[in-house]
Structures are given as C-alpha cells and as structure tokens.
C-alpha cells in the first residue's frame, strides 16, 4: 500500500463517455488519489457536474483532416501534455480510448517521465498474430498494418493494460505475456441502479426491447431483427428502441416502413442520464451484431455491459458472443426463432411473469458488475505499477 498521495491523470477522447464516467466514479472511491482529467470542453460538459470536484486540463481538438497537419498538431499536443504531467507531478496516466493512430505515434514520449496504462478495447489492433488467425476463419474487417505497429509500439512503452472482459484478458496475455494487465468492465452499476431498474420495470407495462449503440448498419443486423418483429402478432403492444444516435438514416427509414409506430429512435446523441433511463426501462436488449466485426472474439460489444450490468437479459444469435458469460443470454438460431422468442417475452411481460422468468436471474448475474467489487483490485493494480 502507498501511504503518500498518488497523482493520477486520465486522458479522454470524445467518445466512450459511458466508460469514462464509470471509470472516474471508480477512481473517486480510492482515498488519497488526486485525479486530473484531460478532456475537451465538449467532453467536460458531457461528464456533467458530478465531477466538478476534480481538476481539469482542457485538451485541444484537432479538426484538420490533412495528415501532415494532424501529425504536427499531435506533436504540439503531446508537448503540452508533457508540461501538464510535470506540473501535476503525475505518477501515472490512463488513456481510456487510445484509438487515434496519429496521437498514438507520439504518446511513447510520455513514458520517459511517467507511467502509462492503456485501455485496450480491440485485441486485433495490437496483436498481428490474432489478426492473421482471425482473418483465416472469419470475414472480419481488416486493420491497417501500420496502425497495429504504432499501437504495439505504444503498448511496449506502457506499464500496464486494462481489458474490458475476462476472455479479452486471456487472449491479450497469450499475445503479450510480458505486459501487466487486468480487467475493468466497460460499464459498472451500483445497488441503487439495480433497485431503480426493478422499480422502473414494474411500472413499464409496454414490452420494451432495445438495441443499444449508434444506429450503424456496419455494426448491427437490423433488417433480420425488423423481420422478426414484423412476424409478431400485429395486435400485440410492444416497442423496439434504437438506443443511440442515428448515423445511418436508411436503417430508420427501413424500420419505420416495416414496424411503424412500434419503432422508437433518436436523431442525436443521448445524454448519459437519458441513455441509462431507457436501459432501465428495457425488458430485453437485442445484440444483433454484425459478423464483420470480431465481437465476442477480439473485441467487446457495448451490449455485453449495457445489459448484464443493469440486470437486463440479452437476446443474442447462437453464434455470437459465445465467450460472454457475465450476464443472462437467451439464444436464437434465426429470424423465425427470434420471432417466437419475442412473442414469448411479450406474453411474459403482459401476464406478469417477467420478473420470475427473466428478471430475477439477470439481477443475480449483475452482481459481477457492482462497482464496489472493483475498487480494491484497481487500487492494487495501479499501486503495484507505481512502485515497480
């Protein structure tokens, strides 16, 4: 245990705000840790007043699309970051979403004056052998070779890594046995979150299914899900919520045409509070993941956390997320099977049996994601890196 104050810096990108909020809450629970957040003014606003007691350093935003200018801007940006690290006598810097390749090229410079921990979201963006093996058996999207080389160089300069799931940690250790690593899930919850979920679901009389995440056809198989709902009896009351910003308008147009008023969607980014509110009102999440992304194999999907952490059961295709065990998954084989399950779930909600048939087991499994279970392990992980 370190008795002196520990100075921690957290560097944030514009996206993955849910993760950043969860992680800051976790850090704030650890005594004698001084937290400094590096974020844009826009990101600062998204984090909300909950973190007004923390110190913030405003991060400049690079708007240029010209490669040379971006590289020069990032070099200047890292020089400013180096000054902030020295000013705050920073012991360690977390990068919660290190996915900007041009910036990652410059970040190893920081390791000369402080220690670095990376959140590694996608294993295939670091490990060449995993990329090759995955390509040989699946039609996954390709990762540029130069990006993997830059990311690996940054990882080699880092003192540790955080993975989002146990199965990703196992794969990471197989590829990088020399890197000290642990797990922190993308989403954590509290007992009050689960209590609120129970209250909301008891008051929600319309069977509600949600697909969490940005509406993007490259990430989800929307059409087969729409078809499954189309086969549900038209007299049934239900809603399908596309719970994320609309990036692909053609998905919305197709969904409205097929499902009409049963479909709900959002044009713009949802604030975290509103996003969480809709999650807690959902009887089921639907994964519907695209096979073009290595979800459940080399990267995690948000649905693996949005559902399980809040005690929401997840409908998932039989071949998807097979490594995910921290939640309650109800599997289906095709659109027809999914349609029958949807009818069964709607009947369960309408008959008052949903709590016993689905909710109780989902809440039991949510205990893995309770925030209180992760504080000590994170503290031990960080302090062992600082003293090493």
Chart the SSEs and their pairings.
Blueprint: E1 6-11, H1 17-28, E2 33-39, H2 41-47, E3 55-58, H3 67-87, E4 92-95, H4 101-106, E5 115-119, H5 128-137, H6 145-157, E6 160-163, H7 166-175, E7 181-183, H8 191-203, E8 208-212, H9 222-230, E9 239-245, H10 249-259, E10 263-266, H11 272-281, E11 284-286, H12 303-306, E12 314-317, E13 329-332, H13 335-350, H14 354-365, H15 375-387
Features of this protein?
388 residues; alpha/beta; Rossmann fold; 2 domains; seven-stranded parallel β-sheet; six-stranded parallel β-sheet; 15 helices; 13 strands; globular
Please give a structural write-up.
The chain is α/β, with parallel strands linked by helices. It has two domains: 6-188 and 371-387, Glycogen Phosphorylase B (Rossmann fold, 3-Layer(aba) Sandwich); 191-369, Rossmann fold (3-Layer(aba) Sandwich), CATH 3.40.50. The chain has 15 helices and 13 strands. The strands form two sheets. The chain has a seven-stranded parallel beta sheet with strand order 3-2-1-4-5-6-7. The protein starts with 5 loop residues before the first strand and ends with a helix.
Question: How would you briefly describe this protein structure?
Answer:
By secondary structure, the chain is an alpha/beta fold. The protein has helices at residues 17-28, 41-47, 67-87, 101-106, 128-137, 145-157, 166-175, 191-203, 222-230, 249-259, 272-281, 303-306, 335-350, 354-365, 375-387; strands spanning 6-11, 33-39, 55-58, 92-95, 115-119, 160-163, 181-183, 208-212, 239-245, 263-266, 284-286, 314-317, 329-332.
């Amino acid at each position: 245990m370190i008795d002196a104050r520990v100075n921690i810096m957290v560097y944030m990108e514009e996206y993955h705000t849910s993760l950043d909020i969860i992680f800051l809450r976790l850090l704030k629970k650890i005594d004698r840790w001084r937290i400094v957040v590096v974020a844009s003014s826009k990101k600062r606003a998204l984090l909300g007043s909950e973190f007004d007691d923390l110190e913030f350093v405003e991060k400049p935003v690079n708007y240029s699309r010209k490669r040379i200018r971006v590289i020069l801007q990032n070099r200047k940006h890292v020089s400013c970051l180096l000054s902030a690290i020295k000013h705050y006598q920073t012991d360690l810097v977390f990068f919660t979403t290190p996915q900007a390749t041009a910036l990652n090229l410059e970040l190893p410079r920081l390791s000369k004056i402080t220690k670095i921990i990376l959140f590694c979201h996608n294993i295939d963006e670091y490990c060449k052998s995993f990329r090759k093996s995955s390509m040989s058996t699946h039609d996954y999207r390709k990762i540029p070779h130069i990006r993997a080389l830059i990311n690996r160089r940054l990882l080699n300069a880092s003192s540790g890594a955080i993975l989002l799931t146990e199965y990703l940690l196992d794969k990471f250790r197989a590829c990088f046995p020399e890197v000290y690593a642990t797990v922190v899930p993308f989403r954590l919850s509290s007992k009050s979150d689960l209590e609120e979920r129970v209250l909301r679901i008891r008051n929600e009389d319309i069977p509600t299914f949600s697909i969490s995440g940005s509406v993007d056809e490259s990430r989800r198989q929307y059409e087969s899900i729409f078809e499954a709902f189309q086969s549900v009896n038209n007299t049934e009351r239900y809603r399908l919520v596309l719970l994320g910003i609309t990036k692909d308008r053609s998905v919305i147009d197709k969904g409205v045409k097929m499902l009409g008023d049963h479909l709900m969607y959002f044009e713009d980014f949802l604030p975290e509070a509103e996003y969480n509110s809709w999650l807690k009102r959902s009887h089921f999440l639907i994964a519907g993941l695209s096979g073009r992304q290595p979800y459940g194999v080399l990267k995690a999907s948000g649905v693996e956390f949005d559902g399980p952490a809040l005690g929401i059961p997840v409908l998932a295709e039989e071949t998807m997320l097979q490594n995910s065990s921290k939640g309650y998954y109800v599997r289906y084989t095709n659109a027809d099977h999914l349609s029958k399950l949807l009818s069964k779930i709607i009947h369960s909600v309408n008959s008052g049996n949903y709590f016993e048939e689905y909710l109780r087991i989902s809440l039991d499994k949510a205990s893995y994601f309770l925030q209180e279970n992760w504080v000590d392990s994170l503290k031990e992980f960080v302090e062992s890196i600082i003293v090493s």
